[in-house]
Write the structure tokens for this entry.
Amino acid sequence: MRAGVIGIGQAGGRIADLLLYHSIWGKHKGIVPFALAVNSAQAELRGLRTIPKSNRILIGQTAVKGHGAGLNRKLGIRIAYHWIHSIMHPVTEKVVQHIDAFLVIAGLGGGTGSGGAPVVISRLMQMYEEPVFFIGILPSEDEGKLMNLNAVECIQEIDGMGNGILLFDNDLWKKEGLALDTSYGVMNYELVKPLPLMLGAGETAKDKVGIKVIDASDIINSWAGFGYVGYSKMKAKTPRDRILPFRKKSSIDQLSPAQRCFTAVRNAATMKLTGECDISQAQKALMILAGPPDELNMEGFSHAKQWLENAIATSEVRGGDYPMRGWDSVAAVVFLSGYSEIPRLGIKLQNIESADKEIEETD
């Protein structure tokens, strides 16, 4: 799936920057035809590495003079609303390129991100037919009550707007004992890690066409309500392993290709996902297996898909394989969606399906 990416606020901009890096330099090229970073803090835009300077949009200069919204969500809404044309103008120039969907990314605790995301999503829904998905970063409990309140209000405004929300919970992924910047960098990496594989599975080159191909429509139809993604990787047998039969084998080496494929999917779905969720409550699921063609076993794929169909609340599971020549591992991505609640924040969606809903100007 080729996605036009708009990162809003500090977290949104950094994650958009990382996604674009993977699209340019990673194994899954072209998944992000364009990426924009929108912020009211000039210093945060300067810290980006991949997004071109022409695509870094500073808003609210007259209101905050380039110093950010300071966790003031109402101010963030007002700035985004009054500078929406500055945000959308580069989008209209870029969207002539073929994209399958928009990804809007923001931290839910900050002023610019939590305030601006609903404004941008609303305008995209009004202007374009492509689906609009939101990736939201939940603040951890120790980031303070104000940031958690911003998150609740932001999600309540987005309810019924857009086509689905992928959540990443900082409370689950925070790293103790690390410098603040390093900790956030690690969390951003963990969020982005499965996304290039998920988005790139349908953008296949001649030597990467799977037997069960995932395309953009599979991803779009698998994404509703709140969603969480899991990733797992297991070392596969390499040509060197086959030539050295007496090499000391680990427990993973003992697994057959079918067992390795099944285990990778099960681990992705049941171990550490981007947020706390009960797999049995998921309404939809998407699974992707990637790795050396010889290691992508049909028996293991079918077994994993059947297991996933039995594990979630419905049997709506889409799955595909993604052959990657030169890889030394089998990787699995499992995306679970259709959730309507975030128990930690006491949030319940009123309308999981998309709805026409506009953000009104804040006085």
Notes: Confidence is low (pLDDT under 50) at residues 354-363. The two ends are 38 Å apart (CA to CA). The first strand starts at residue 3 and ends at 8. Residues 9-25 form the longest helix (17 residues).
